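Running this now, will post back.
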Amino acid sequence: MTPAPTPSTPPPAQPTFTRGVRIAGVGSALPERILSNADLEKIMDTSDEWIVQRTGIRERRIHDPKTGPSTTDLATEALQKALDRAGMVGSDLDLVLCATMTPDMPTPSVSCLVADRIGAGQIAAIDLNGACSGFVYAMNCAHDFIRIGSQTTIGVIGADLITRFVDYSTFGRAAAILFGDAAGACILQACDDTSKGLLAQAMHSDASRAKHLFIPCCERDFFDVEYDERRVNSVQMNGQAVFRFAVTTFPKLIEQTLESAGVQAGDVDHYICHQSNARILTAARDRFGLPEDRFHINIGSRGNTVAASIPLILDELTQSGRVKEGQKIMFLAFGAGLTWGSSLWQL
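Update: finished.
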């Protein structure tokens, strides 16, 4: 007698969402102090031509160690601007989610301090450390909190005061020429249009390559890297290894995200990428044949601002009227960890 066939397990039911997610307001904040390549020429062995050729950077904004601003100052200013532009106040938020690798202190978190400063009341507040990928990670997490109904309105911040960990001498030149300080923020809110929100996202990490970009806090050797006391509390970077990683990872990340969403490269109106190096960004743009007005680069005047770099560009494009309802925007980032991620939105 032939045994009855074993019934196959049905695939899990896909969730049905009853609300979409919109970007209701955007803001950013920068320190007043400008550090130009000419300024760096005076304190280390470098030149404007050398820096521009390798990074595309001509100047960057940095904090003053004595007068500030702090990470919390910049984060608060950026989120308050986003609230103002959304026509909201702090008490309208259910959660503040801050992506940063440079909090002002181990605890309390930047997000807790910001929530108090904007008058948000006793809401949830979380810091997330994804380095340069932090804002993309935070956007993906915040979107899903709203989509599944656990939150309605979230303030998402990317803020870093990375120059606190930069050695402005010839020994630390590789990092000193790259980094700047900034913050950017947006308000995510539930809406009735279920077509709005994430079309696709990706988040990855690979600690086997962490030694290529890290900040040691003590003499302990985590990554089999030769110890030098000047390395402690300073950004350590293997520029060539990071460059190779980024050049190969960016195109794959874009392809993965487009394929997941079922769209073509030309269907995306804006590619907003972490501003790490102009050569990396240009290579990715050329790989997909994208025009300059769709693949934005502002590193020349901002430097690498870590988790703030993506919301900085988003704010610039929004305030200039170039970001419009109905468009598709892809956020892309890679950073220390090593981490990398994407977030493709339907506005």
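The chain has two domains: 20-191, 197-346. More later if anyone needs it.
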